[in-house]
Amino acid sequence: MKRREFLKYVGCGCCAFGLPSCSSAPITNRKQITFFPESVINSQAIKAYEQFKKKAKISKDTETLKLIEEIGGKMKIAISTYFKSKKMKDPTDDYKWEYTLVDDDKTLNAWCMPGGKIAVYSGILKVTKNKDGLANVMGHEIAHAVAKHSVERASASLALNVGVTVADIFTGGMIGRTRNTVGKTTGVDILQVGIFNPFTRSQETEADYLGLVFCSMTGYNLYEGAELWKRMREENKGKEIPQFLSTHPSSTNRIRQIRSWIPSIRQKYPTLSNI
């Protein structure tokens, strides 16, 4: 295929997703460019969550699940109240909130899919320690959904794959040949480390900030966010990879950043009266 023909083909393919959409992340106002409608990602998330629940070992710890639902319910109200008070569109308006506690003591994880589908693994509870620690984890994960990071990541992945293919054609296939010769540390992987990872870290940092905002609006202890990451650092001692190779900020940098944000967040986003 000639280069001109390929570029025409790529252009048609991108048009199938629609023109890029420019918007801003809620509260932080960071500029976002996306290729996928949020409704597409949300519908996929619903299907994925249902499949996940069929395969996961669901915990019978109803007390902890009630706590998760309580925290999630407060954050749901706080987020909606805040945006309505600012006469702004509530990004969670069409969310179908759902909470699952997974019986897995070895996994230190929690996540929130687009559309408000949340899972907390029992293993993370030994790090959260208390209600405020759990609220900080959930605030962070909910922030990923509210800021539409999954839509951004899908769009970034599409742009990255198209960009590498174009670069490979214009270098006469050099990227592909190099990858075949020396393995997976070149081509897409170099771009992964140099471009995609820093972008993802910026999303993680944004989720840290928004998570603190949500905790502040719901009356949870923001300083537990820093304590949480101190405990996580101890749990991962000797396992944490250098920040420049990671999609997450280092625990030390996270702790420092969270502590620096707290005074201004508490002043700007006080606990809401209806919580």
Label this structure with key terms:
three-stranded mixed sheet, disordered N terminus, mainly alpha, 275 residues, 8% strand, single chain, 10 helices, two-stranded antiparallel ribbon
Describe the structure.
By secondary structure, the chain is mostly helical. The protein has one domain (3-268). Helices cover 61% and strands 8% of the residues. It is built from 10 helices and 5 strands; from the N terminus they run H-E-E-H-H-E-E-E-H-H-H-H-H-H-H. A 3-stranded mixed sheet has the order 3-5-4, with helices on both faces. It has a two-stranded antiparallel sheet with strand order 1-2. A hairpin with a 6-residue loop joins strand 1 and strand 2 (31-34). Helix 1 packs antiparallel against helix 6, helix 3 packs across helix 5 and helix 5 (131-146) crosses helix 9. Residues 1-17 and 162-199 have low confidence and may be disordered.
Q: Give the tally of structural domains.
A: 1
What is the straight-line distance between the termini?
61 Å
User: How many runs of DSSP E, i.e. beta strands?
Assistant: 5
Radius of gyration: 21 Å
Structural shape: globular
Order of helices and strands: HEEHHEEEHHHHHHH
Beta-strand content estimate: 5-15%
Strand line-up of the largest beta sheet: 3-5-4
The average pLDDT is 81
In DSSP terms (H or I, runs of 4 or more residues), the helix count works out at 10
Overall helicity: 55-70%
Based on secondary structure, the structural category is mainly alpha
Major beta sheet, specifics? 3 strands, mixed
Low-confidence stretches: 1-17, 162-199
